Amino acid sequence: MPDWITHLGLGWLILEALHRKEHRLHFLVGCILPDVEKVYVVAGFLASPRLEVLVQAFFEPTHTPLGALLLSVVSTVIFSLGEEENDFSRAVGWIFSGAMLHLALDSFILVETSGGIKLLWPFSSKGFGISLIPLGDWRPAAIVAPACLATALLKRRWNRAGS
Predict the structure, then answer these.
(1) CA torsion angle 33 27 14 139 (round to 10)
(2) For residue 26, with 0-12 CB atoms within 10 Å meaning exposed, 13-18 middle and 19 or more buried, which class applies?
(3) Better-predicted residue by pLDDT, 158 or 17
(4) What's the domain count of the chain?
(5) Residue 52: which domain range?
(6) Does residue 76 belong to any structural domain of this protein?
(7) 85-95 tens-digit pLDDT
(8) I need a surface site. Which of 4, 21, 65, 106 has the fewest CB within 10 A?
(9) Cα separation of 137 and 113, whole Å?
(10) Crossing angle of helices 24-32/65-79, nearest 10°?
């Protein structure tokens, strides 16, 4: 389930089910934050393959719980610059929760093709996963996208009926 439609869509559906509006953006950013590693694809187009390998090695830990936590802290620091009041620990918690949802969804990808989620990194590079869905499969997005559309339409109808 590496597509952003599935990650963001399922994150949004969870927020809707929980009726959470506070820190919504933090959670949704966390849902796609581990995929910041995709920068290495751009590096491959713009520069030599050696740079692509270097960038890929640097970003590899993004799909680990520790890497997700570090990304959550760094992104909260970056995005909270200039704010007078910020609830740092809550923002980190929501971003980290979104990132953990991302890792949970990615654990459904076949371990043979994805390498799995390295839960014990940096102590072990062994990948773990549930191995149900091939890498790049379109079916998760085909399920989540209509569910999001139906939820949005029902919410709109509900809000109109309530006003």
Answers:
(1) -20
(2) buried
(3) 17
(4) 1
(5) 4-105+134-162
(6) yes
(7) 668 889 999 99
(8) 21
(9) 12
(10) 130
